[in-house]
Amino acid sequence: MSKGLAAGILIAIVFGGLLGFGLTYFFLMNNSGKILQTEQLEVRTQAILVDSDTTPQMIPDMTISINTSGSSYLILRFTTMYIHTIYSGHDGASIYNINLTLNGETIIKGYIGYNTSSILSNTIEFFSSFTLEYTTDVLPAGTYTITVTWESLISGKYTDSQLIFCSSFFNYSRYLIVQEIHI
Fold first, then answer.
1. pLDDT digits (tens, 9 = 90+) for 18-55
2. Are 97 and 151 in contact (CB under 8 A)?
């Protein structure tokens, strides 16, 4: 075998090994998109908000604090089943606002509501699901507190309408999930 051919084979083996090592490092050591941690709450206790509650308040047991490592972002998700009850005699709108907050600042809002143009002669109830989801920008390392708040946007007669999360009649939960994702 000639010296040139042997040198070419040796160079091919060395570069092939380096390429294989480089690709292995890239695919195994690259953490982009990796879930670094997950915090989750599952709550089954009933929470009720009535239409006269027009000041934002925390939904019971819906707070998570998470310590992040930096160079990451958070995915936040709140989901629940609900019952929206509107009692006979109601006239107009019944609207509830649900917020996800990060360190006390509202970052996303959602609404549950119903509007009627005449006085209801019967009580009506709506059963449905509700989800809020938000992805933050890249955050520095630190401690972040995520809460879920709610409020009525239209004040009624206290018994005009109500919003129930986790009714004692039905067996379901509300969830708050926070995931830290490496960039």
1. 455 554 555 445 678 899 999 999 999 999 999 989 99
2. yes
